[in-house]
Amino acid sequence: MIRFLFTIFLCGLLFFAGGCWDILLIEDLAMVIAIGFDVDPENPDLMVVTMTSPTLSEEKKEPMATVTVKAESIDQALHNVQRQSEDILVLGQTNVLVFCEEFARSGRLSEVMSQLSQLRDINANAKVVVVKGATAQNVLQLSSPVEPRAAVYLVDLLERNHFTGMINQATVSEYWRKHYTLGIDPVVALIDITGHEDEKEGFRVAGAGLFNSAGKMTGTLTDEEVISYNIITGDAPRRRFITKVKISGHKRNVSGLIERSKVKIKTKIKDKPSIDVRMELIVDGLDADWDANVLDPKVTDKLAKLLAKDFQGNIQELFEKSQKVQADFAGLGRHVRVQHSEWFNGKDWAEEYKDADISVSVKVTVRRIGTMVKPES
After folding, report:
1. How far apart are CA 275 and CA 357, in angstroms?
2. What CATH number was assigned to the domain covering residues 232-377?
3. Of the candidates 62, 54, 13, which has an alpha carbon nearest to the alpha carbon of residue 34?
4. Reported confidence tier of residue 61, pLDDT bands at 50, 70, 90
């Protein structure tokens, strides 16, 4: 009797057991790995949105499926793409967002990023990049001989260049964090398309874009300026530099690796903010085009002083450039906000930053010299 009742009990549990009633096969999903945003030349109220996803069916000849639609918002774009897709859209695997330069300078990039923050399945680690002189649609339709999937190739390119210190860490979460934090503004990686006029099939890192507090891209950084940016912010795993310093009356190539850095920022308020940026850098593996004795302490000291002067000048110029475009890339406003909260409240920091007095001092310690090469006369 007990065995019979136990059997009835187990059978009854089957009615309450959960099952995969809403299972979705991967073949039925359109896993969007890249989204591009362009300005619609015919209607300023619309944007051109391009989404790419891998074709998982063996019957498909192309490795990627690309759909381009026009829409007023992200939600409308998703609806329009879904109408053209036989599979269910999934955004959790989106690895890169590409914006054309006109879109970024208009401020609409920030609007899109705000709308994306409302989506539950958006990938917060997706890369954010702005393309110069081309459309995002062109970028996502390129087919490189190295990697036919443009989105995959672009993500790999950004990750490698970030590791080597050529670009900053530009992700969705980093953009949100800086845009919504008082006293610091976002910086986004820039790329451009490479190749001949008729055979453009690749892209390269082309610096970085500076955004102001209103979400508009107002300026750009060159490759050399990105190195200075990474030195200030520490926003790169490896910070290798190449520069020229004047030695014995001639400009000589000097390169090395910034092993450690320490930044101290002190602020004062007089008629306007006064910000003192003091940096201590430890350089390792220094190489120079100079015929000198690497064991001589005077040589090491001289190189350290020359590098300190060079870094100081470059960083000072970078701050002055950012002030002109009102983009506080280093977050100096956060220090002012903490140290002078009563003064900061109610102020328009973008305007205050433009007129602030910023002074930079740099101390360099050369830990080890790599090679000294006698320059050709």
Report:
1. 6
2. 3.30.300.210
3. 54
4. low
